[in-house]
Amino acid sequence: MSELTHLDAQGRARMVDVGGKAETQRVAVALGRIRMNAATLAALRDGTAPKGDVLAVARIAGIMAAKRTAELIPLCHPLALDAVSVEFAFVGDGVEARATASLTGRTGVEMEALTAVSVALLTVYDMAKAIDKGMVISEIRLVEKRGGKSGDWRAP
Fold first, then answer.
1. What stretches of the chain show up as alpha helix (H) in DSSP?
2. What pLDDT, in 10s, does the model give residues 85-94?
3. Which of 122, 155, 123, 116 is nearest to 138 (CA)?
4. Which residues are substrate-binding (predicted)?
5. What radius of gyration, in Å, describes the C-alpha atoms of the chain?
6. pTM, rounded to two decimals
7. Residue 99 has what pLDDT?
8. What is the rounded distance in angstroms from the CA atom of residue 6 to the CA atom of residue 16?
9. Pick from 117, 42, 93: which is nearest to 109 by CA?
10. In this structure, what are the phi and psi dihedrals at residue 101, rounded to the nearest 5 degrees?
11. Annotated binding site for substrate, which residues?
12. Which of 44, 48, 50, 117 has the greatest count of CB atoms below 10 A from its CB?
């Protein structure tokens, strides 16, 4: 197995060789938030947005995005995910998205969880922008990672 780096011997970008790594159970959890005005928040909460059930569509979009992360993020490994979930919670003046991705494999699923959250929140924006173009997507971050060579990690 070569060194785990995105650079080859000449300093050029390449996909990391994970062929020699052991397969382990890996889980990643990401969070993100979208803030909006009160009317938009009420429409999402009540399911009365002009484009229908925004959060149901955003959930599916996030799951689909996680499955296509390698097509979106350069040098990311294509992964056969075991599971992806996207959940939403109404928090203050907005909605928080939480994505969990898991697999048994040789590389982690942090990028898949982060991609799921990002696309889910972008979908909320797209479907509700007729009400509120000033929505703000923020705080997209990894909050937990389990498994793999580097072990477990949890955001403080």
1. 38-46, 54-67, 69-72, 110-128
2. 999 999 999 9
3. 122
4. 75-77, 111-112
5. 17
6. 0.87
7. 98
8. 5
9. 117
10. -125, 140
11. 75-77, 111-112
12. 117
Q: Which domains does the chain have, with CATH numbers?
A: 24-154 (3.30.70.640)
Tokens of 86: 């996207």
Active site residue 126: yes
77 vs 3 pLDDT, higher one: 77
Long-range contacts of residues 39-44, Cβ cutoff 8 Å, at least 24 apart: 39/131, 39/132, 40/128, 40/131, 40/132, 40/135, 41/90, 41/93, 41/94, 41/95, 43/128, 43/131, 44/90, 44/95, 44/124, 44/128
Among candidate residues 82, 93, 126, 132, the one labeled active-site is 126
Six token digits for residue 130 = 């007729």
Structure tokens at 15: 């996909």
102 class by beta-carbon count within 10 Å (0-12 exposed, 13-18 middle, 19+ buried): buried
